[in-house]
Amino acid sequence: MSEKTLVKNNVETKENEFVFEEKPVYNFFKRLFDIVVSFLALIFLIPVFLIISFVIFLEDKHSPFFTQERCGKNGKLFMVYKFRTMCPDAEQRLQTLKQQNEMDGPVFKIKNDPRITKVGKFLRSTSLDELPQLLNILKGEMSFVGPRPALPKEVAEYNETHKLRLLVTPGLTCYWQIKPDRNSISFEGWMALDRKYITERNMWVDIKIIFGTFAVVFRQEGC
Fold first, then answer.
1. What total of structural domains would you count in the chain?
2. I need a surface site. Which of 34, 53, 111, 133 has the fewest CB within 10 A?
3. Where are the alpha helices (DSSP H) in the chain?
4. Which pTM does this prediction carry?
């Protein structure tokens, strides 16, 4: 889909039609839901945050938290919060692992990444490492549902079609997140799922994705 026409709030592609609507009423209630639920969840999960932080620190005596710059809506940069699941020098070791990348496109993923700690493996399998992103949601940088926030270096390699996923606020979970064997999905397939969400998005779709995410977490299919 190399040709794109922009008409006010609509985006149309030559092969398939991609229509983007602002949906102000939906956006209002979605933001209200994000604020209320993230605020209550942060209060309720304080003991869980403390336990996870303590266990991570015990393993290697380094900070239990990890921050990283990501691209938000319209490419606006923000710092995403996570529990640290990798060794402290993970970014430095990345260069030696790039040839083992099992994903196509600008995304890096490998099975049994040697940089992941023992505690980190459990946190990823249960998606507990994502809990600090409740702060991003409360701040309005993220939503509960939306395309996963990408690294700036990944976005730099996007074509115009890939960039369509930046039209909405990124999310904690999405269509790709709840797919079985999601890591076997191609990069283009992942991007297509994000565009599918953007065109279909409404509160009912969001609720279905949220419940689908609980099912994935219960089965410990995180990565």
1. 1
2. 111
3. 24-44, 46-60, 90-93, 118-126, 133-139, 152-155, 187-200, 203-218
4. 0.86
